Amino acid sequence: EQTKIERFAAHSRVPVINGLTNEFHPCQILADIFTFIEHRGTNSEGKPDLASLAGKTVAWVGDGNNMANTWLQASEILGFKVHVSTPGGYEVDQSIAGIRSSDSYQVFKDPLQACAGADLVTTDVWTSMGFEAENEARKKAFAKWCVDREMMAAALPDALFMHCLPAHRGEEVEAEVIDGPQSVVWDEAENRLHAQKA
Questions:
Q1: Are 68 and 110 in contact (CB under 8 A)?
Q2: Are 76 and 99 in contact (CB under 8 A)?
Q3: Beta bridge partners of 161
Q4: pLDDT tens digits for 13-27?
Q5: Which of 24, 38, 59, 185 has the most CB atoms around its CB within 10 Å?
Q6: What distance, in Å, lies between the first and last C-alpha atoms of the chain?
């Protein structure tokens, strides 16, 4: 829980890093943004540039979980937009995410519409750690939220696909997508190491 890590940090004499809580996953999003910049974020001189993310669109397809919350926070800071599509009952809780403005995101009932024109399509497992008892109910609820070739075709032609891994091929993502040419999941996984070291 986020409150536990915050209490821990308040009483620690050394820095405390949030590697993962139920509410947020900043280390993963830092790696994801790093990966996106490596592949698509250069300035006019061809050099990596954080500012190049402004105006881009990230499609989040799946659970309104810690990853979704942190993508929304990053979008407010860096000036890109997040298209969020979740099944009913699994939406992002704005009070947890701490979103101050709806300018940086848009909600879509249809995941295909969320992917339309996106620069990046990303997802996560349908059942996060600690929710295993809900696995069967989630499989039914999320059946239309499997990132497939049609969703990737709706995104921009050079759109990337990301997943924080481990992934369940045939559930939240088709094998043809995660193993396809638009997928950068292995670069993304490697960049977790670099983000953590930084």
A1: no
A2: yes
A3: 121, 183
A4: 999 999 999 999 999
A5: 59
A6: 24
